[in-house]
Amino acid sequence: MRGRAGAGAVLVLGVQLPALWLAAAVEVYTSKEVVAVNGTNQRLKCTFSSSSPISQQLSVTWNFQPEDLSSHEPVFYYLKQPYQPPSGRFKERVTWDGNIERNDVSIIIWNLQPTDNGTFTCQVTNWPDVYGTIGEVRLQVVQKVNFSEIHFLAIAIGSASVLMIIVVTAVIICRQRRKKAQEKRTEVADTEL
């Protein structure tokens, strides 16, 4: 009888240990898609949760996969302090904007270009939580809207709004005049009787 109970306990532990291991992993959270205007700066938000206290060995790795699916490029690295890339497209264009105590490992990309379209990945390891999810942010850089296009759109919307107000006002005035004329006819008919 003891042998079966012991085997049962080992079996239960064998099933639960992998579940406990997965529960101890680092979870990473990002905004899945970001749209930014060409030439502007954009904060790429990345936060995490860990079942372990924040350790001195916590590290953050940001990478970039261009839309053309060419090779991954390093963007940023953090281990006790932020390290900018020594070369590549993000050299001197990325800064640390995180706060480890608040579980925030965000960065800012400066002077966005259409070539920055692609997927940024954020990975956090917090010893002993070395496994976990990798956060992804898909960045789409769009061209600036010309002033003339904005001006034209504002005029079109403004004109349509003014026209709508005029039509509604005209309808209200016509109804009031009809109502007064109806009342006058009713009054004249009453006096004739």
How many angstroms does the end-to-end distance come to? Answer: 112 Å
Cα-based radius of gyration, to the nearest Å: 32 Å
Instruction: Please name the fourth-level CATH homologous superfamily of the domain at 27-142.
Output: Immunoglobulins
So, CATH architecture of the domain at 27-142? Answer: Sandwich
Mean pLDDT: 84
CATH class designation of the domain at 27-142: Mainly Beta
Q: What's the quaternary structure here?
A: single chain
Segments where pLDDT lies below 50 for 5+ residues? 6-23
- What does the largest sheet look like? 6 strands, mixed
Beta-strand proportion? 25-35%
In N-to-C order, the SSE pattern is HEEEEEEEEEEEH
Question: What is the topology?
Answer:
Blueprint lengths: L1 H22 L3 E4 L2 E5 L4 E3 L1 E4 L9 E8 L6 E7 L2 E2 L10 E3 L10 E3 L8 E8 L9 E8 L4 H46 L1
Parallel strand pairs: 2-11
Antiparallel strand pairs: 1-4, 3-9, 5-6, 5-10, 6-7, 8-9, 10-11
Membrane topology: Single-pass type I membrane protein
Family: Belongs to the myelin P0 protein family.
Protein name: MPZL2 protein
Keywords, please?
Immunoglobulin-like, elongated, alpha+beta, six-stranded mixed beta sheet, 193 residues, three-stranded antiparallel beta sheet, single chain
